[in-house]
Design a protein that fits this description.
Helix content is about 25%, strand content about 30%. By secondary structure, it is α+β, with helices and mostly antiparallel strands. α1 crosses α3 (about 55-65) and α2 packs across α3 (about 55-65). The N and C termini lie far apart (about 65 Å). About 25% of the residues are buried.
């Protein structure tokens, strides 16, 4: 850690109280890229020992950086660097694809594929998608990116007659389906707050214990048939879901 944070040199640094010098040392390490988004800081006790300062001084410097939004504490995990990301708002009144959302914002949507293929359905998929006989289910799992920054972890299931070749999907599932004359007309969404698992935080590039918005969607065709069931985990530090409400008659 000495190359990233030269704590043994802190006492020799000029300029103000020790906690100010420590705070600036951490800020410089982040701005220079030596400390990156998601990196963990050493324990406060280790910082205090390495810099030959009190834990009270260390706590004061870290508290300031947490208040400034540069660091975040995760209970039971430690203190992590947080790189500010632009927040995006998604209106809940419109049924649009992730690619369309990003295009409206002038950003480039992308996908990092985790898995896609045809599988035997689970009991839930069979029931929700109305599958019968020997029908299989098309599953796609990917990380959705905006300007190459991970934003969401998306898992989608569709009947195999709606998506017979999952490998043919490029960045936009809905665009691919529309090219085949298939398009959803309505959807039900269930939104909840969740804590990401360790494997999910790694995929999204966020610190352990981070929160996310879970959006479960059931999309329907004009005939009333279920076209898609999906679950997306959106980074809560980058995404807001916004609903516009109208006031009914008294």
């Amino acid at each position: 850690m000495s190359a990233t944070l030269p704590l043994d040199q802190l006492q020799a640094v000029r300029g103000g109280p020790l906690y100010v010098k420590l705070r600036k040392m951490i800020e410089d390490a982040v701005s220079s890229g030596r400390l990156k988004h998601g990196d963990a800081l050493p324990a406060e006790r280790d910082i205090a020992d390495a810099a030959a300062i009190s834990r009270v001084t260390v706590r004061k410097a870290i508290d300031d950086l947490v208040n400034d939004g540069l660091l975040v504490r995760r209970r039971g995990s430690g203190t992590f660097v947080v790189k500010p990301v632009p927040r995006m708002q998604q209106p809940l009144s419109q049924l649009t694809s992730f690619t369309e959302d990003m295009r409206r914002r002038g950003m480039t949507a992308g996908s990092r594929w985790i898995d896609r293929g045809l599988y035997f359905p689970t009991a839930e998929e069979t029931m929700m998608l109305g599958l019968v006989g020997g029908a299989r289910v098309a599953r796609i799992e990917r990380i959705r990116t905006a300007n190459d920054m991970p934003i969401a972890l998306e898992r989608t299931s569709l009947p195999d007659d709606i998506l017979p070749d999952p490998d043919a999907v490029d960045d936009s599932l809905y665009l691919h389906l529309r090219q085949g004359g298939i398009s959803p007309v309505r959807a039900n969404q269930r939104i909840s707050a969740v804590i990401l698992r360790d494997d999910e935080t790694k995929l999204l590039g966020v610190p352990p214990g981070s929160a996310a918005l879970s959006v479960q969607r059931i999309a329907y065709l004009e005939t009333g048939r279920v076209m898609e069931m999906s679950r997306a985990l959106y980074r809560s530090d980058a995404y807001d879901l916004v609903a516009e409400l109208t006031i009914g008659s008294p």
